[in-house]
Amino acid sequence: MKTILISAVALGTLTGAAFAGDKCNVPVGEWQPREALETKLKADGWQVRSVKTEDGCYEAYAIDAKGKKVEAYFNPKTFERIDGSSEDSEG
Description:
Blueprint: H1 2-23, H2 34-43, E1 47-54, E2 57-63, E3 69-74, E4 81-87
Antiparallel strand pairs: 1-2, 2-3, 3-4
């Protein structure tokens, strides 16, 4: 039973990363600065903890305007949200 659960979690993690990478197929020369994404998110009411590059996307770790922890992927050219997860801030 543990093997099935671990396999399902691993598959879900790999699928999410692959999904984000497929959507962020943008040449590096077309990327907007990481700081510009952070500024946009802060203007939207997010408390940004960090923004890094992951699988060709920007990945933000933050608390959103509703107070939930968020790990979200963004297109580095358009800042369109691609994929991510959130949980209750108490979680």
